[in-house]
Amino acid sequence: MRVPGRPPVLLDVVEEHFDELDWLWEHRDANVFTPDWTLADLAWCEQRAEAHLDGLRLAELHGIDLALARLAGGEPGATLAATRVLCAEPSGAHLDPVRATLRRGDPPAVDGVRRALRHHLPDALRPLLHELAAGDDALRAAAALDVLAFRREGLPPFAPHLLVHEVRPATCLALAAAARAAHTRPLETALDRALADPEPAVRRSGLSAAAHIGWAPLLQRCREAAARGTDPDPDAVALLGAIGEPDDEATLRACLARPELAATAVLALGALGRVTAVPLLLDLLADAKLGVPAAKAYRRLTGSDAAFGAKALPPSDDGSEDLPPAPDAARADWQRRAASMPVAATWQHGQPIPTSALPTGFDTLPLDCRRDVYLRLRTRRLAVPDLELEALALQQRR
Q1: DSSP code, position 318
Q2: 329 closest CA partner among 369, 295, 359, 367
Q3: Same-domain status, 131 and 20
């Protein structure tokens, strides 16, 4: 095997390759379930990242040196990119710093390494992951379990206490790992506590894990969380839209009277996929607060952008720059398409969604919609393939 050297390079260009690799992976992971991306967008981002990784490979030791320096900095994005560079070196001679980060790094650095190893795990690192997964450090154990479960590799004996651990990031990772690995029995005993946890991230992880394993009480728990008089859970309302039955439209409509749930409930009506909600959505387009969510829900149902105008609204508090609703255009659009979208079917982006199988156009759906269609089937314990919806796009395409 050829020993890496120091070819003549422009060091500024090498550094630019690294910064782009860092940014593209952060951008990719931030958008893995957004409504504006499809698998094609995910693949485009990943291919650009791979091109920059190729540039760092060609830089040989110059790229290795830069990766080692950024790994030591402990920033999550830089740590992810550095791990990709160090793991791509064929000899495996630079894996010790990755091992040291997993053993002793701060939580953000461990998280960056974890995300990188999900997609490329050298054989030489597997023994360490199994060791950490069985260890006493909750966050490192959960990170190791996450990587192994993400890759559908055999897990060491699972420590159920991680599912209810006081270290909340560890609990989130452990819940997802248990669902991926189909460790149903220990997971089911932890779900009640996860869904009642004061930390929203834990509740979201619990809801997702419950849907993934088809936990029988999940639908009723979502309905109860939407209807309770105090401390309702917006995440449960959102999931109810994704996995609910036609009758749950009434529950979501009732949520519109509650300011803390109204916007989420409008979006959930789009996720539920019933065209019986379209007249309500068209009326809501004129609402000052719910007009934009209603336009998004209309697009979720029909696949049409007709409910949006042309000029962007001023940036909101969360930085989004949504287009304004266009009620008249949306009503005209619905008049044209209503006859082609029967009430009896469930619809997502203008596609009829089967009740017991993935739709033919599954891989063309936006990423958030694709996830929700998949979870709806998983919730019902139907015979659907075990898909990893956060895997690389080319691995996901069926």
Answers
A1: T
A2: 295
A3: no
